[in-house]
Design a protein that fits this description.
The chain has one domain: Nucleoside phosphorylase domain (Rossmann fold), CATH 3.40.50. It is about 35% helix and about 30% strand. The structure holds adenine. The site of adenine (ADE) has 14 residues, from strand 5, strand 9, strand 10 and helix 6.
Length: about 240
């Protein structure tokens, strides 16, 4: 079986710096997305921008795993910090993912994905360890991530950009171990789980999901997200 790693980001800025690093790339269009197939530092990869939100992430992940037979998936991008001590510029590697806006009560417990029996979907331990190690290496080398702390734990996803303190307080109160909030990871996790394929998710913290989130997010995504994503993914592939 060939192994081909899928590398996915939600926005252009999250994958832009990786695109020029692909050797021998060709592009295929499916479901309105451009899938770039090529070699990254000697590894077969497929790079794609999935779009924002859980449905965009789920569609793209299903195409990657089925049509392109990706053997594993790494998702890279930005997130809002929720956990105490999770600051702008820090890096969060997901150990598990949960949809914070899933609620089929009273039919199923809060957050449980109906008929799966679970609310939390674990990331692959091997890929997560590689992403943590790669993030530490980046921070130690002072490459972009100078002074960044590396966190490993629960990441929550929902179809909402969390941009008020009131909303992030609610999330913290309900899900006290959540480190970060974003809009795709739990969908990727559920689809990878359905296909039985390993995945890892790494997010750099662009904002604190509070009233300043919008401005912080714009600045961070333009200046930092692209090189962070590129260097963490390449360092993880080299391990
Ligand atoms: N991605 C980056 N920041 C975010 C936030 N505050 N809410 C949801 N997704 C995000």
């Amino acid at each position: 079986m060939t192994t081909r790693l899928a590398i996915v980001g939600a926005m252009h800025e999250e994958i832009a710096a990786l695109r020029p690093c692909l050797d021998g790339a060709r592009t295929e269009r499916r479901a309105g997305r451009e899938f770039h197939l090529g070699r990254l530092d000697g590894h077969d990869v497929i790079l794609v921008r999935c779009g924002i939100g859980k449905v965009a992430a789920a569609t793209t992940t299903a195409v990657l795993l089925d049509a392109f037979d990706a053997s594993a998936l790494v998702f890279t991008g930005v997130a809002g910090g929720l956990g105490e001590g999770v600051r702008v510029g820090d890096i969060v590697v997901a150990s598990a993912l949960l949809q914070h806006d899933m609620n089929a009560e009273p039919l199923f417990p809060r957050w449980e994905v109906p008929l799966t029996g679970r609310a939390r979907f674990d990331a692959d331990a091997g890929w997560s360890a590689r992403l943590v190690q790669a993030s530490h290496a980046l921070a130690a080398a002072n490459l972009h991530a100078h002074g960044a702390a590396i966190h490993h734990g629960l990441v929550v996803s929902g179809d909402r950009f969390v941009a008020t303190r009131a909303e992030s307080d609610q999330l913290r109160a309900a899900l006290s171990d959540a480190l970060a909030v974003e809009m795709e990871g739990a969908a990727v996790a559920q689809v990878c789980h359905d296909f039985g394929r390993p995945f890892g998710i790494v997010r750099t913290i662009s904002d604190r999901a509070d009233d300043a989130a919008h401005g912080d997010f714009q600045r961070f995504v333009c200046d930092v997200a692209a090189p962070y994503s590129r260097d963490i993914v390449r360092a993880a592939l080299a391990l």
